[in-house]
Amino acid sequence: MRRGLPALLGLLVLQFACRAQVQAPGADVLLITVDTLRPDYIHAYGFPLEITPSMDALAARGVLFENAIAAATLTAPAHASIMTSRYVREHSVGSRNGDTRLEGLPTLAEHFAEAGYETAAFISNVVLRRRMGLDRGFETYDDELPAQEQNRDRYFERFAEATARRALAWLGGRSPGKPIFLWLHLQDPHGPYTPPPGWSGKVDRVPLKLQSDLVVLSENFGRAGIPFYQALGEMRDPALYAARYAEEIQYADHWAGQVISAVEKRSGERGSVILLTADHGESLGENGWFFQHGQSTSPELARVPFIVAAPGLVPGRIAGPVSHVDIAPTLLALAGLPGLPGASGRPLRAQLRGEEVPEDRLIFCDTDGESAAYGSGAWTRIAGSDLSDRADGPGRPTQSETARLGAGGEWRPAELDSRAFRGLVDYLERRVPRVLAGPMAPEHIEELRALGYEAPLESDIEGREPSTDPGS
After folding, report:
1. Mean of the per-residue pLDDT values of the chain
2. In DSSP terms, which residues pair with 401 in a beta bridge?
3. Residue 323 parent element (H or E)
4. What structural domains does the chain harbor?
5. Mean pLDDT lowest for which of 150-154, 220-224, 253-257, 406-410?
6. How far is residue 71's CA from residue 198's CA, in Å, rounded to a whole number?
7. Contact partners, residue 47, CB within 8 Å, separation at least 6
8. CA–CA distance, 432 with 101 (Å, rounded to integer)
9. CA 248 to CA 200: how far, in whole Å?
10. Shortest CA distance to 368 belongs to which of 77, 18, 41, 50?
């Protein structure tokens, strides 16, 4: 017993030291956002097929958050929240997706640039082009989108290999003595699910609850069918669509891994801070919705992966809820930098040190016309046509409901959570005015429609007279 005591004490001291030193000043910082990536399609989160070796390896040496909630179920507002640590009703992008602009708030990239970091972003989605305002603070903001979408004749995206190779080239030209902040956005899991040659056919079928074939809808949005822009030839079996979705994830994982490896090699002993997440999930048959997102704040759309690796972290899994708005404070804290002023999120240092943290917080998620609060194993949503983030006020909910997570993993209707409902009503009052991104060229409007997004605001369309209703 006495001979074992020093060894035990030494182990405890080592564990305490590792947990206490969750900070890496001067480390390189890599943020990866993968578009439309459900966490349950990552092997580390429980997907049965090992299609995500890069993400799995990151999780194995880092910390995986099991219950991360997106700030929005659309790309533009979700990324605005990631970069500002503000919820959707607290920034000028609002819940719109491509026709509003981020202004008036400090960004994560600006903070890193002010601290002497070299900053760069490589994005792959039309709604993230620099006109949206996310380029602030990035010395390099590469938003060239050369690839043609299968079902439309407009150029609107960039495949993972092309985006990653641009990022790798940028990394190769950086001075090794200066830290970097790199944001890599990969579009590929977003529909249509068209993995490139060499990646298609790797996954056979991914069974869904609905076994019968689907019809193709006449529009890009709707229930009980395949959205028009998602249609892949004569294929109608939803299980095959899910397989193509999995292959797109596999392809994105490979190129994310290439960039992760390059950053870690460059960082050497200085170390690197890496955080991987998604902007939102994807509907794969839940409530009759197939292969689309943005229609609600429901769990299959709101849940996202959230994996952090950094020097000094003790690998593990954390069940407590976290949000997109926690990303910026956490990355800055891990880099030893002060946080963003007025942030709604919190640095996750305590969780990353393995400490128990109360789980009584409410985490908000938005889409146009609907807001939700996640907390204590419940999802509470309020909705109504006048809940859009319009200039004439926050609106009043016409629908409200609560669902709780059952033992079998199913969300079941429950009595309305009064605390969450009150929190949501208060949250609606935080709305700030949207800022239009300026005139949009007709070809960019078609690019948004090709992605399945709604048309831009009338006042934001080039060649039209501005509407008197800013929410039209």
Report:
1. 85
2. 381
3. strand 316-323
4. 23-352 (3.40.720.10), 369-428 (no CATH)
5. 150-154
6. 34
7. 40, 41, 246
8. 12
9. 8
10. 77
Alpha carbon distance 186, 157 (integer Å): 10
Give the whole-angstrom CA distance, residue 124 versus residue 35.
9
**Residues 1-28 pLDDT 10s:** 334 444 443 433 334 444 445 666 789 9
Distance CA 72, CA 406 (A): 24
Per-residue confidence (pLDDT) for residue 466, from 0 to 100: 29
pLDDT tens by residue, 156-165: 789 999 999 9
pTM of this prediction? 0.88
Q: Is the pLDDT of residue 399 over 90?
A: no
Kindly state the DSSP code that residue 463 receives in the 8-state scheme.
T
The residue among 364, 358, 360 whose CA lies nearest residue 345 is: 364
pLDDT of the residue at 20:
47
The tokens for 179 are 């830290």
Length of the chain counted residue by residue = 472
Strand 147-148 and strand 155-157: pairing?
antiparallel
Strands 147-148 and 370-375: unpaired
